[in-house]
Amino acid sequence: MLNNKEKSFNKNIDIKLWKEIMLYSLPYKKLIIALSVVMLLVAGVDAILPLLTRYAIDNYIVAEDLNGLYGFSIIYLVIIIIQGINIFAFIYFAGKLETEMAASIREKAFTSLQELSLSFYNQRPVGWLIARLTSDVHKLSSIISWGIVDFVWGFAMMFTIVIIMLRLNYRLALITLVVLPVLLIISFYFQKKILHEFRLVRKINSKITGAFNEGISGAKTSKTLVIEDRNCDEFTGLTNKMAKSSIKAAIYSSLFLPAVLVLSSVGTGLALWQGGNAVIQGAITYGTLVAFISYTVQFFEPVREMARVFAELQSAQAAAERIISLINTESEIVDSKLVIEKYGTILKPKKENWPEIKGNIEFRNVEFKYTDNEEVLNNFNLNVSAGQKIALVGETGSGKSTIVNLLCRFYEPVDGEIYIDGKEYRNFSQSLLHSNIGYVLQDPHLFSGTIKENIRYGFENATDAEIKNAADLVQATRFINKLPDGFDTEVGEGGDLLSTGEKQLISFARAIISNPAIFILDEATSSIDTEMELIIQKTINKVLKNRTSFIIAHRLSTIKNADKIIVLKDGKIIESGNHYQLIDRKGYYYDLYQNQFYNRRESRKTRITS
């Protein structure tokens, strides 16, 4: 149901990767500075509380000075209130940073997707992409924001506490901290194990997301093929794999954190034992012992927290690697610097510099193949004058769709050139080229929203009158006016609330409204009924008048009036001419037409007799 290969990533903490990730936090440096300052204040207050306790014990409790203790308690309460304000501030700043960074990274990733070529989408499941933009982004933004909190607070606490402990009693401090090297060794061991399992979890999660998407979008196909049980088995296999890796990660984490807890308790026990002896011998006061034990507990608390964050960092790095790899993916189709300077980019076009496209097209010695597969086109040549209607005919895999994909520059020739109006088409920007091509697919995709909004996608500045004119031109107004909300009718996700023919007409209107110089009908009438085909056929000639057009159709009756019919086989032109010329030659096209005509006649007889 889902086949997705992912590259392997670095098994250790990747400093270079995290430096790149932190670049995305630069726009929020003021917020990060504010968060860091607040965390230093929190750490500072946490660090002085045991000293205040020591002072109270030695100066008020031991001396039984209740008046002094009362005044001290008020000061202590004020400090606690200040600490409460600090904690509110750091939670607010961290939450704000997490939300804004998630939005920024998600926007950057989505923008990157808009600039990638069609081949990128053909090689990756939808679920893989959804997982990158949702769960991975959330994981990454969370560790950046809350990781800053824990690291700043943790390092500040540990550094301050070590200094204070050494000042109070350096011998006792060294005895207490003797467990620290062991703690570091354990941390490095477990982080490798946890990182490995979290990477597997993220990888399988992508496949599960893809399985969800395919299971829902392909529900009808699954039911007609009766493969629900197979889908369930595959999905169960994925969830079991994810559960297995998650359990392993949980086991390592469950061993790691208790190990830290035990070692910190050993440190506290050493402090109590040695400190107790020192009190008995009169080397330190009761207040100093209490403060020292408090500092010992406080010291290992940030160590435990940082150990937890470090474990989460492993999971976040797995997410970060995938997000950055997505953002840094380079499109296979890239405009040159000179073209960008003149015509702009996909996202920032310079429409004021765009020339008018007439529609003269030439394929000159074009060769093309998909990845490492055998060639689809070999030394392909074709001349099309502006306004000509070209029909492409041939078996599946003969190169029909490849020709129009190359013309749209979804792909580029491996060798040879394509010229538009006498100019090599890579000298035009992608956005300029695409804006001059109207494309109607066999299975048209409509966006969630209204009919009006979908037609306007073809030309964002279109007025309501222009939208209606486009709908009138393709005779879509007939069915639109019958809908309760007319042009404001919701089409549903992917246009599921409309029939295939209705979606086809909306797709026609959307393509026409921008008044493109070149029009492509990619098997546009092969999935609709005869009545709808007649409706569309009546408007095609009018729509395509004075426009260069390419038509791919299974029904040869739809291309009788084409100026030129190109018959393809194995990526080469084997016949060329208009319908009547090719019929007279009684070649390959003649056989196709006769077979199709016979099959349709037999089909009509069957319907009549039944």
From TrEMBL:
Protein's recorded name: ABC transporter ATP-binding protein
Q: Which InterPro entries match?
A: AAA+_ATPase, ABC1_TM_dom, ABC1_TM_sf, ABC_transporter-like_ATP-bd, P-loop_NTPase, Type_1_exporter
The record's annotation in PROSITE patterns points to: ABC_TM1F (PS50929), ABC_TRANSPORTER_2 (PS50893)
Q: Where is the signal peptide?
A: none
Tell me the organism.
Answer: Halonatronomonas betaini
Task: Extract the PANTHER family matched here.
Answer: ATP-BINDING CASSETTE SUB-FAMILY B MEMBER 10, MITOCHONDRIAL, ATP-DEPENDENT PERMEASE MDL1, MITOCHONDRIAL
Membrane topology of the entry: Multi-pass membrane protein
Any single Gene Ontology cellular-component annotation: plasma membrane
Q: Which residues form the ABC transmembrane type-1 domain?
A: 33-315
Q: Which is an annotated GO molecular function term of this record?
A: ABC-type oligopeptide transporter activity
Which intervals hold domain ABC transporter? 361-595
Q: Where are the transmembrane segments?
A: 31-57, 69-94, 143-166, 172-190, 249-273, 279-300
What are the UniProt keywords, alphabetically?
A: ATP-binding, Membrane, Nucleotide-binding, Transmembrane, Transmembrane helix, Transport
Q: Where in the cell is it found?
A: Cell membrane
Pfam families named in the record: ABC_membrane, ABC_tran
